[in-house]
Amino acid sequence: MMLQYSCNHNDEFDIFSTNNNEDGEIRFTLDFTNAENVDLDLYVQTPNGSIIFYGNLADDGGIMETECLGKECLSASHESIFWTKATAPSGVYKYWIEYYGSEKSENVSADYALKVITNSQVTTTKTGRLKNGISPTWSFEFKNER
User: DSSP per residue over 20-33, as a string?
Assistant: First the structure.
C-alpha cells in the first residue's frame, strides 16, 4: 500500500490518505465538527497492545488511512484506521479520541461520531462532544474467521 501526500491550501498543512476508503475487514472512522478551531485525533490499540495514531501510522496490519494536520484542512475533519481483508488480528481492540488542541486560547468543543465498520457494515457508533482531554475508551472484540 502506498501512502499519498497532498496539500489542501499550502505545503505547511498536509492531508495524507491511503486505500481511497476501500472496504476492509475493520475500519475505525472519526468525523468531527468545528475543524477550523479544533483538532481531534483517533487512537486504536490492537489486541497485541500496539497503538495506531498520527505518531505511529501502521502496526499489526492496521494503517492510519486519513489524517489532516492544521486548520487549513477544513474538508478533512475525518480520520480513519483500517485493516485490509484477512489482515486484522482477532481479539479486543480499544479505541478513543484525544483532543489535540484548539486554535483559540480557551478550549473549544467539537461534536464527534466514531464508527467501527467490519466487512462494510457499521457495527458500533459512538457520539459525543469533546472540549478537552480524552474521550472514554471503548472496546470492540473481533474474531477473524479465516
Answer: GG---SEEEEEEES
